[in-house]
Amino acid sequence: MAQSKRSVSPLLALTLLMLLGSVAEAQEHYPSNFSPDLLEVEAVRNALGWLEENFPNQVEEWIRITEIPAPSGMEGDRARYLKDVLEAEGVPVKIDEFGNVVATLEGTGEGPTIVFAAHMDTVHPLDVDLTVTRDEDILRAPGVFDNSASLANMLAVIRAWREAGIQTRGDVIFIGTVEEEVGLVGMAKWLEANPGVADMVVALDGGLGSVAYGALWFSGRRYIFRGEGAHTLQSRGRPHPAVAMADAIRSIYEIPIPRDRDFAVYNVGMVHGGLVQNAIPQEVWFTVDLRAVDPALVDELGEEMDQRVTRVAEEQGVELERDPPMAERAVEEAVNMLPEPERRRHPLVQTAVDVYAHLGMEAPPRNTGSTDAVAAVRLGIPAVAMGRSRGGDQHTLQEWAHVPSALPATKAVLLVAVSMAGLDPLAHPLPGPTLQF
Ligand SMILES: [Zn+2]
Fold first, then answer.
1. Minimal CB count within 10 Å: which of 1, 51, 300, 353?
2. Parallel, antiparallel, or unpaired: how do β-strands 390-392 and 400-402 relate?
3. More confident residue, 64 or 328
4. What is the CA(205)–ligand 1 centre distance, in A?
5. 234 assigned to some structural domain
């Protein structure tokens, strides 16, 4: 090659180097186990093909599952449905002591164990009509989106897997969990009863559109104000629990939430009190539901609320009780949680992002979460949540779900499972020399 006659000035060269350096810094490389070459493997191709062909059956089953009532704590009928259909197909499955349905697709023992968890419970009481109506691409019924869709997706993945004869190195465990809606109970209990089993956890929950790898911390409290009370005619100038409550609510809504910190939000959801119209109430109360990604922020905001409410009660001369009397400190509960950069760098996160991108869906990683994955994140186990379909109005009677989007959501679950558990190279001879598992 000919030598260039022009030379680059040292200053320009230095500037270019610095620019390149900052570009490299901005685009941190996150490891991923997904390779498009995976789709060249016959069994994986067959499994994806099977999912497409059987999608109408998957939708039928989705409707069937939705119509089985399963309020939190009463998931038994749904659990038996899952167990029966899996058993009929020869999948090893059991219902554990907590009511979770657990099915295992065994690996060769040479890879990590990945757990997929879809909660079975709904927020809808037994007397709610769960009949599903279909309007072209939309299904409507309470619970059809949250989380019946994920249960149907999960069953479809298990069937496609076995139909195509996929053999992974690591075990893949599928769990239908109980009582997610009332505090991730079934998942947390399973993790506690099976320490060291799950190397990774994927919650099948939520809509499509992101890969959540964090944990939202919760803190709930109720402030109760009490006073002597008085008839309206004697009420002027007397301590007033309702006035204290009003001041307290206004005061806590004036707490500045730091913008430079992670997401935080709170809500006064219940207010209650008073027995008659013509007297100062002797007791009133309100609740606060406080959530933040940063456990320290949950504690700080909670303490600030306590101080403000205490001050207001003193000013008004009424008694204050807090329920529970002491909040658990989120920071203390979060001791096992991995720091954010470490959680982001685990290959599970980028693998899920890459799988979605490959299937034509944008799903940016997000440091948050309020699904069964959170129970794992809190224990320091790498975990993400993967969506079930598009849809909305969950936890209402108008709940709906978009049917076609459940197919790529299901394919994504299968591809993440295979990518993370690793294909057994003996069972699946690789077509190209570039493939490495
Ligand atoms: Zn849910």
1. 1
2. antiparallel
3. 64
4. 5
5. yes
- Residues 94, 200 share a domain: yes
Q: Is residue 1 part of a domain?
A: no
The pLDDT of 57-67, averaged and rounded, is: 98
Distance 117 CA to ligand 1 centre (A): 11
Cα distance between residue 70 and residue 65, in whole Å: 9
User: What pTM value is reported for the model?
Assistant: 0.83
Are 117 and 204 in contact by the 8 Å Cβ rule? The answer is yes
Which residues line ion ligand 1, judged by CB < 5 Å?
146-147, 205
Distance of CA 248 from the midpoint of ligand 1 (Å): 32
Is 347 contained in some domain? Answer: yes
| For residues 404-429, average pLDDT | 96
The band of 411, judged by pLDDT with boundaries at 50, 70 and 90, is very high
Alpha helices in 103-204 (DSSP H): 149-164, 185-193
Domain containing 277 equals 217-333
Nearest-angstrom CA–CA distance, 95 and 30? 37
Sorting pLDDT into bands at 50, 70 and 90, what band is 58? very high
Domain count, the chain: 2
**392 and 325 share one domain:** no
pLDDT for 180: 95
Question: How, if at all, do strands 172-177 and 114-119 pair?
Answer: parallel
Determine if the peptide bond prior to 147 is cis (ω within 30°): yes
Rg (CA), the chain: 27
